[in-house]
Request: fold
Amino acid sequence: MKIVNKQFGEIEYEANQVFKFDGGILGFEDLTEFLLITEQDSHFCWLTSITEPEIIFPVFAIKLLQEEYVNEGEFEPYGIVKFDKDPQNITVNLKAPVFINQNKKVGFQKILENENYQVDYPLFVKN
Reply:
């Protein structure tokens, strides 16, 4: 099987690589099947819709930022990234993470009630 988008071009995949999100992603509830594209030597991954291949969510493993971040069983938390031309303005959503189980190929998004988790957590800090 394959999908095509402007960012990655043609992507070939097998059925066992597809992640199922029963509730979709907030604002995109109808999109329930995604590929998790990783790039060598990068901390960013790309959650890419199978149904709408131009819908791509850049994600970042939150445990790289905060080791004590909330756990959801066997699911790893990822924050959706908001990019900007200025690296100082690149942020990660810690308030509504995407939880992904790499082995079972399932995921979900959850809004956390903890007020310490920001929607726009700065990924880079100016020294």
